[in-house]
């Protein structure tokens, strides 16, 4: 059976679809992917800072409430955050009734914050991390995964946040069969949690109704 075509256009932003979504290091879209997005009533810098400050994920992130940094290119810095080249262990809470599992990840790309003022539309900031295959001693043809985060400044200065994870390799079929729906739900939780946390940090911000996942037809670098 031929693999499904990778998702494009409106289908790419349909969170009900788990077909292949291209990412930087898995351009064919792999075996499957999960996706979520939300509008955050805060500037892009605030969203960017919340994602990179992994020590504070425990304050908002119910999916990955703890991150252990195992190596860092600037290990003597007093302000250690996610940056390119950092290796991390994610302590993942897949289901409320399951014990946390761990996933070894390496950050492969952190762009500077792009705004409409300094880059023009679309002003998209990108952060990526990958399953650290060397750390788990598993080759990419068995399992590989890449997480993409896009932070786009809207015309009114608020932020559209999009995130997806693409899975490839033979063993990703096992991940799909066991965790496809769970991952979809947890990605929605991630967006909900991030939105709430960032918006609560903003002064005098009116909180609109939640809109996690209402992402069809939006712009994207994909």
Give a verbal description of the structure.
This protein is an alpha+beta fold. The longest helix has 29 residues, at 172-200. The chain contains five helices and seven strands. The chain has a seven-stranded antiparallel sheet with strand order 1-7-6-5-4-3-2. It has one domain (9-200): Alpha-D-Glucose-1,6-Bisphosphate, Chain A, domain 4 (2-Layer Sandwich), CATH 3.30.530.
The CATH architecture category equals 2-Layer Sandwich
Side-by-side strand order of the widest sheet:
1-7-6-5-4-3-2
Would you identify the regions where 5 or more consecutive residues have pLDDT less than 50?
none
Helical fraction equals 10-25%
- Helix-strand topology string: HEHEEEHEHEEH
First-last Cα distance:
26 Å
Structural class: alpha+beta
Please work out how many helical segments DSSP would assign: 5
| Relevant CATH superfamily | START domain
Beta-strand share of residues:
25-35%
Q: Which descriptor suits the 3D outline?
A: globular
CATH fold title: Alpha-D-Glucose-1,6-Bisphosphate, Chain A, domain 4
Oligomeric state of the chains?
single chain
User: Whole-number radius of gyration?
Assistant: 17 Å
Largest sheet: 7 strands, antiparallel
Which CATH class? Alpha Beta
Count of individual domains: 1
Quick one: how many beta strands?
Answer: 7
């Amino acid at each position: 059976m031929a693999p499904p075509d990778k998702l494009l256009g409106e289908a790419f932003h349909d969170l009900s679809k788990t077909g292949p979504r291209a990412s930087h290091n898995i351009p064919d879209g792999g075996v499957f992917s999960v996706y979520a997005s939300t509008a955050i009533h805060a500037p892009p810098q605030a969203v960017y800072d919340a994602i990179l400050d992994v020590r504070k994920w425990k304050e908002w992130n119910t999916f990955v409430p703890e991150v252990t940094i195992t190596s860092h290119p600037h290990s003597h810095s007093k302000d250690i955050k996610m940056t390119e080249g950092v290796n991390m262990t994610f302590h993942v809470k897949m289901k409320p009734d399951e014990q946390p599992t761990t996933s070894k990840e390496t950050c492969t790309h952190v762009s500077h914050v792009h705004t409409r003022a300094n880059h023009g539309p679309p002003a998209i900031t990108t952060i990526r991390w990958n399953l650290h295959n060397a750390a788990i001693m598993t080759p990419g043809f068995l399992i590989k995964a890449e997480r993409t985060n896009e932070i786009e400044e809207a015309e009114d200065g608020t932020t559209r946040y999009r995130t997806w994870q693409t899975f490839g390799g033979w063993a990703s079929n096992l991940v799909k069969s066991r965790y496809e729906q769970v991952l979809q739900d947890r990605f929605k939780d991630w967006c909900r949690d991030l939105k709430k946390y960032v918006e609560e940090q903003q002064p005098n911000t009116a909180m609109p109704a939640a809109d996690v996942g209402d992402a069809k037809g939006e712009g994207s670098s994909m």
